Each structure stands twice: as C-alpha cells, then as structure tokens.
Amino acid sequence: QVQLVESGGGLVQAGGSLRLSCAASGSTVRNNAMGWHRQAPGKQRELVAVINSFGTTNYADSVKGRFTISRDNAKKTVYLQMNSLKPEDTAVYYCLVTTIPPSWGQGTQVTVSS
Prior knowledge:
Shape: globular
Distance between the termini: 40 Å
Number of helices: 0
Radius of gyration: 13 Å
Helix content: under 10%
C-alpha cells in the first residue's frame, strides 16, 4: 500500500514556473514508474510525464521542452518542474505510482492566468 501526497500547486501568471512534488509513504517505490497526469475541467485525465525506475522519461507532446520530471528514490519523491506555463496548463495535477492497482494522489490545482 502506497500513499501519495502532492504539493506545490498554485496560481501563476503565464510564462511563470511551478514545481510540484509527490511524496510516497508506505511501501518502497524504487522499482515502480512514477508520473504525473492532469485533468482540466470538462476534459479527460491525460498523461503529462512519467519516469521509470531506470530514470527514463516520457512526456506528452504538449509539455515537451517546458516540463521536467525527476525522482529521488531515497526520499520516495517525484517532482515535476514546470516552466513557461501556459493558460492551457491549468488543471488538477495527479501523481501516480504504478503499483498494482495503481496508486493516485489526491491532486493539486495548478492555475495559469493569462
């Protein structure tokens, strides 16, 4: 059983930056992929970025070059550095760990004003 707690969301102007954190507690997550999804109002939840246990990363096309995912296995934490934010990045951001079944965080709101 893994519990996830996200932090770092907030309100920022377009062009600004935010850093999201997701801390896991409970079982180790060293061998699991960790990632971030987001859900905007009226839209389906979508993958933003994922990092596997080897450090290999994958990004949605819409965030490539602007967002960076990283992890600290000693702290059981995954991060999402978000730069050059756009209003269309506004969403609730959810942390995910690929346990069976998957573990989700409660979400953190990111709002980008124009």
